Amino acid sequence: MCGIVGYVGPQDARDVILEGLRRLEYRGYDSAGIAVVADGLLSSVKKAGKLANLEKVLAEHPLPAATVGIGHTRWATHGGPTDRNAHPHVSADGSVAVIHNGIIENFAALRAECEAQGVEFRSETDTEVAAHLLAAAYADTPEGPGRLAEAMRVISRRLEGAFTLVATAATEPDTLVAARRSSPLVVGVGDGEYFLGSDVAAFIAHTREARELGQDQVVEIDRHRGLTVTDFFGAAVEPKAYTVDWDAAAAEKGGYDWFMLKEIAEQPQAIADTLLGRLGSQGELVLDEVRLSDQELRDIDKIFVVACGTAFHAGMIAKYAIEHWTRIPVEVELASEFRYRDPVLDRSTLVVVISQSGETMDTLMALRHAKDQKARVLAICNANGSTIPRESDAVLYTHAGPEVAVASTKGFLTQLVACYLVGLFLAQVRGVKYEDEVSAVVDDLRRLPEAVAEVLAAMEPVRELARSLADADTILFLGRHVGYPVALEGALKLKELAYIHAEGFAAGELKHGPIAVVDQGTPVIVIVPSPRSRESVHGKVVSNIQEVRARGARTIVIAEEGDEDVVPYADHLIRVPRTPTLLAPVVTTVPLQVLACEIAATRGLDVDQPRNLAKSVTVE
Ligand code: M6R
After folding, report:
1. Is the distance from the beta carbon of residue 355 to the nearest atom of ligand 1 less than 6 Å?
2. Helix axes 483-498 and 585-602, enclosed angle (nearest 10)
3. Closest by Cα among 253, 287, 224, 255 to 68
4. pLDDT for 332-385, tens place per residue?
5. What CATH class does 257-446 carry?
6. Model pTM?
7. CA contacts within 13 A on the Cβ side of 385
8. How far is the centre of ligand 1, averaged over its atoms, from the C-alpha of 409 (Å)?
């Protein structure tokens, strides 16, 4: 949600900022803007729409070359996606420019205060208030080193809500200053140059050396004096250094039309990377990075899995596996609801938060609530060094590599695999499974990369099918047991990418109402459990296919190889390799990802950046 880039150094800041914005555009694409300092003046250009619009304006009216600059790509919250509301926001006196990610919750009162002092606002954003307040604080701060940083600390103490603010001043051509509370910000350290970014993608082409910023901290970057980090009151803080473990090539499209296609294709490798080093030679699990003692893990008597969107669907599937393997009760909660309903949590509760980006505000707030209630928090996360794993008691990284497309694909499959690892690890530590039972599942996990590769190799008929579904008004998804969350995930993918109405149902619920919407020709996609699944769920789902078909549905059936029972009732049959029931979502989800992607492409839509969305949702 909003991409932020800052640069100080010998290169032309205009190029570095634009390149960073290109890599961060997935975070928001309602508008974009850039500001540089040259010859004692701040110059800025901003434009509604995608980055390409800004680039066009810059080609016609270039900014002056500069060694310091800031850039922003926006996902609108306060004020529509217009030129005026785009960032940077320059103060009324032209002394400072500011970019912002987050929401300043007390902006209305602060705006009224500025207006009472005669400031005329030029936008409807909450951000503009920060520009005017910063200019006033800057004017009140004595000249000298650290002036802009001091002004930033003064205003940060007054702001409520979540914010990353980055500012530059007309009279300080070698300085950048930023403040961080709850919204993401990382520093890149190069050779005589520094970068700021919402995430490391902003500067990965230049350096892999990064510094983590904590809550309520202000960073000042001066080309000559280097990096200084303090809290909001000026006390010095030593930022944690780390090296980013992926390179620029990983964030490129690599010959694919869309990042999403590339990320779908990367799934076998991503799963292998999630498993890497975690499956021991004796068939046991080795999760050293779960920094909870065996005793703490044995004491757990209840688990909450908390997440949003696709990650929530991973959590729903995790419930089936973790309860089955550990016999610990598991509840799955939408992060945006969790803390508002006052859940019962204590020291023996484990809260597993799942987030690809590690920055989702709803999930972060749920995590903080859980910690306030003394629960243990384990994060399953992809983005190294992001806020959610940093604030958790333990973390299991998925190591899927950068996920750039807004629609999560490899993020989801690797979250599933990480959830299986957590469930199995708990079962191992608590001794509720015999060693050979654990090692049998470990063998099944080892086979997943190959199984996903097999599904991917057989996707041509799915692409053809997608072309025939591109004009559908509505598509329904049915599943049962772990197939139910897969149905929800299939529907979510289709909605967000193709803007087609789609709903996922638990197949058994169909007869309680939803079957009324099935009409002549309605496409219904059914995720069929294995015939080896428990208590004849398979037979019941096969009956559900017949029920919708009898009412005119066009049935699209996803079933494992060798399942002949579905053949008479499938208008289209998509085969997936035989996989143990609890792990089956890893293979059955893949055709649904491909289907949604291809339908969107056929409809001429932007697959990587669907309308109204952003990759990382950093507001509540
Ligand atoms: O980064 P997170 O995993 O916390 O993101 C959660 C959701 O916002 C995310 O999964 C969203 O639903 C995706 N766009 C779905 O494809």
Report:
1. yes
2. 20
3. 224
4. 999 999 988 889 999 999 999 999 999 999 999 999 999 999 999 999 999 887
5. alpha beta
6. 0.82
7. 26
8. 10
